[in-house]
Every structure is written in C-alpha cells, then in structure tokens.
Amino acid sequence: MSIILIALSALLLAVGVTPLMRQVALRLGVTDQPNARKVHTNPVPLLGGAAIYIAFIVALLIFADKRYVPQVVGIFVGASLVSLMGVVDDRWGLGSYVKLVGQILAALILVFSGVQIQIFHSWLDIALTVVWVVGITNAMNLLDNMDGLSGGIAMIAATFFTLLAALSNQYLVGALAAALAGACMGFLFYNWNPAHIFMGDTGSLFLGFLLSAVAIKLRFPSNSNTITWMIPVMVMGVPIFDTSLVFISRLRRGQNPLTTPGKDHLSHRLALLTGSRREAVLICYLIGGAFGLVGVFLTDASLAEALLTGSMVLAIGAFGIYWLEFRKGGVRQPVATAPSAH
C-alpha cells in the first residue's frame, strides 16, 4: 500500500506541476524551436523533465520510509547532477562530450556511495557500473525522439521494476521505481501526441540515470548472478535495442553515433512502416511490455532456461536490426516526428 501511495502521489504531483513548468519554460525561453526536421510550428516548452524530477522527489520525501533515505543519497545526488546538466543543455546547449563527462562523474558518485554492480568483486565492477549507467542514460536520451515515447517506455520499465521489487520484497527499489512510474504517467497526460510540453534532456537524462540505478539496486539472491543481471537488461530492452540500431546504422554510414542527429531510430522506422507516429509509439510500448514480461519470467527460470531465453531474445534482436537496416532499404525519409533532437 505504501508503494501504491507513492506512485499515486507522484502521478498527481506530475499532473499538477507539469502545467506550471510549461509556463516557466515559456517565460524563460526554454523551448524547442521548430525547424525543417520537426512537425511543430510553434516553440514547445522543454522543462517537462523538471516536473518529473519534482514529482519524483516530493513523493518520496513525503511518503517513503525515512529510514531508507541515507541509502539513496548517492542516487539523488547523481540524478540531480544529470538533471541539472540537462537544464543547461536545454537552455544554452552542451556538447556531447561535455555531457558524457558529466554522466561518468554521476556514475562514479553512485559507485562511491555504494551503489554498484557486484559480479567480479574487483575494479571491473566499477568499470561495468560506469558503462551501464552511462549507456542507459544515453539510451533514454536517444529514445526521446517522438511524443510520448521516452516517458512511456520509462513508465513501463519502472512499473516492471516495481513489480519485480515487490516479488522479491525490496521496499527501497520498489519505492524508487513506483515514484518514477507515477511521475512519468502524470507527465504523459501532456506529452502524448500532440505534445504540449517536451521533457528535454532535463527529463531524459534523469530517467535514464534513475532507471540504471534502480536496476543496479535490484537483487535476486535466490538466483545466480547471470540471471540477476539478465533481468534488468530485459526490462530495458527497448532503449538498448534502439541505441544498438542507431549505432550500427550510423557507423555503417560513416557517421559519429554520438554527435550525428538523424531519423534512424526504431520509432522513426516504425512510423515509416505504419504511416502513423502514434502507432509507432504504441508498438514500442508493446515491445517494452514484452521485454518486461520476459524479465518477470526469468525470476523463476533455471540457468539453462535463462540462457536459452537470452539467446532467443538476442537472436530476435539481431534479426530485427538486420531487417530494419538492410531488408527495408536502410535509412529512408520517415514520417516527420517531433521532437527529433537525436
């Protein structure tokens, strides 16, 4: 009941705060300007991510068990750092490599606060933690390319993390994930196509960092390390697949995956195939739900079953990249989308 209360409060807070942040963004000029690559003809506010951040923090401070606060200080500090960096990027702009350095610093804050992957019990765990956090943070940032996409996928992933935490009696992880799911759901009331506000880097970087941190905190002591770390990878399947597709596509075309914007994402290709941006986003939601269900299945799977499932998912993902990038003619001009900053 406590976790449900946290989720509902975060949802209501996001519903109430998002219109206020929209007005603040308009007054400060923090907007996404229209151009040839975007559908909207008027500037759209970019501080939706700040509303998600506020709803998440306030819901936890009011309703979460205060005994767990010291355990999440590192998460809060790191998340605040990447969110603040996103605000600066939305208002004045930051280079890709500057953001990368900031994300690495935020990941190291997690490590030094005790939140890190524990597989090898050596410096390799630190390196793996940084790669995971930076990778998922950027994956969610790249996924923010269509109305309702990044927020919806984050909501689905956070909902499955909440369920997985409840199944394994992990209150802290459940509270964090529930607050994030509720905040994203409240924001989607204003971000669904046609969007009245975008989350901007303020939101996408924050969501990516939080989801990566929650995944690290999630534990399944009764399962092997292999299964334990397969589960969050499955839950985050959509952003991982999308980033893999974009990197392969851009490298194949001789472009820098980190600095080259383009309409080569999964959502863009699905919009081209279906002729509808809304359908493309809904298909991504369905794929995200399927990945989450696989993650839930793995909690009770044997090692052999988990390895077979992982191999099948990997094969399907590889075929999906091959089909979208090669069989469908590579990157073509898709249905126009908004926003398309990546």
Q: Please, could you describe this protein's structure?
A:
By secondary structure, the protein is mostly helical. It has one domain (2-327). The protein contains 13 helices and two strands. Strands 1-2 form a two-stranded antiparallel ribbon. α1 packs antiparallel against α2.
How much of the sequence lies in strands comes to: under 5%
Tell me the overall shape.
Answer: globular
Largest sheet, if any?
2 strands, antiparallel
Rg calc:
19 Å
- Order of strands, main sheet, comes to 1-2
Distance between the terminal alpha carbons, to the nearest Å? 39 Å
Helix content: over 70%
**Total E-strand runs:** 2
Topology (elements, then pairings):
Layout: H1 2-28, E1 31-32, E2 44-45, H2 48-63, H3 73-91, H4 96-112, H5 123-143, H6 149-167, H7 171-191, H8 200-217, H9 225-235, H10 237-252, H11 266-274, H12 277-298, H13 303-327
Helix pairs in contact: 1-2, 1-7, 2-3, 2-7, 2-8, 3-4, 3-8, 4-5, 5-8, 5-10, 6-7, 6-8, 6-12, 7-8, 9-12, 10-13, 11-12
Condensed summary:
This protein has 342 residues and is an all-alpha fold. Helix content is 70%, strand content 1%.
Short key terms for the protein model shown above:
single chain; two-stranded antiparallel ribbon; disordered C terminus
